[in-house]
């Protein structure tokens, strides 16, 4: 940039849209992760009970 230039102000709307999109994406990812985590925890509990009974 030359010394006399004034930086052009970019529109903030794309930034807001990007932030909103990222927030929505993060929410969807977290919801999916929680569903997977619950399913894994449910299956993990049954696996733990199987392992503990076989170890006795």
Write the layout of secondary structure elements.
Elements: H1 13-55
Structural class: mainly alpha
Radius of gyration, taken over Cα atoms and rounded to an integer in Å: 25 Å
Distance between the termini: 74 Å
Order of helices and strands: H
Question: Any low-confidence stretches, pLDDT <50, length ≥5?
Answer: none
The largest pleated sheet is described as: none
Mean pLDDT: 72
Number of strands: 0
Portion of residues in beta strands equals under 5%
Helix count?
A: 1
Q: What is the percent of helical residues?
A: over 70%
- Name the overall outline: rod-shaped
Structure report:
This protein is an all-alpha fold. The protein has a domain at 12-41. Helices cover 77% and strands 0% of the residues. It has one helix spanning 13-55. The longest helix has 43 residues, at 13-55. The radius of gyration is 25 Å and the shape is rod-shaped. The chain starts with 12 loop residues before the first helix and ends with a helix.
